[in-house]
Amino acid sequence: MMTNSVDEQVYEKDGRDDMKDEVHILIADDDMGHATLIRRNLKRAGLPNPITHFKDGRELLDFLFNKSDAPHRESGSSYLLLLDIRMPKVDGVEALNCIKEDDDLKKIPVIMLTTTDDPREIEKCHVLGCNSYIVKPINYEKFVEAIKKLGVFLQVIEVPRIIVR
Question: How many CB atoms lie within 10 A of CB 34?
């Protein structure tokens, strides 16, 4: 372990930073069945990262903005968000907008993972700043395969740390 100039902890493995093991995956989806399938198949794809599930957009925003007594994000940690659109209390589009308007949180990669395939919704999410938009397949086997492929993708991307100011 070493410390860089901004006092963040940097872990090295094979001579380079290995942020992938530190990235905390957040899933915001009100469908427990989908959330379980996502979690299970990301693990099957070889993703060892911690995963936290939120059943609605309000829980997610409370976590990210440290708004309640519930657990909240930690300074210096890296997060990646898999975000459904149709959720109670606060929907995914509103949550995405709140995240991307915040100077610190806007760095969090957001992958929309939803059954909504409306081109206007896809356009709106990209305009608001989502990084990718994936339509959940209806077919179980195709859904499982899509999540496994997503897991492989998540193993090779780099994610910035979020500092609480």
Answer: 19
Domain contains 1: no
Look-up: residue for tokens 């740390």?
161
The angle at the Cα of 56, spanning 55 to 62, to the nearest 5 degrees, equals 105
| Coil, strand or helix at 25 | strand
For residue 149, which of 47, 53, 80 has the smallest C-alpha distance? 47
pTM, full prediction: 0.83
Beta strands in the chain, from DSSP E residues, in sequence order: 2-3, 9-10, 12-13, 16-17, 23-28, 51-54, 77-83, 110-114, 132-135, 161-162
Give the residues of the chain that fall short of pLDDT 70. 1-21, 164-165
Instruction: Return the ∠ at Cα 130 (arms to 84 and 9), rounded to 5°.
Output: 100
Work out how many domains the chain is built from and give that number: 1
- Is 54 among the domain residues? yes
Q: Is residue 130 part of a domain?
A: yes
